[in-house]
Amino acid sequence: MFNSQSFDMDAYEKRSKGPCFICEMLAGNPDYQHHLIYEDQAAVTFLNKYPTVYGYALVAPREHREQATGDFTLEDYLALQRLIYQVAEALRKVLPTERVYILTLGSQQGNRHVHWHIAPLPPGVPYEQQQTAVLDISRGILSISDEEMAALAQAIRQELERCYLF
Question: Is 115 one of the annotated active-site residues of the chain?
Answer without folding.
Answer: yes
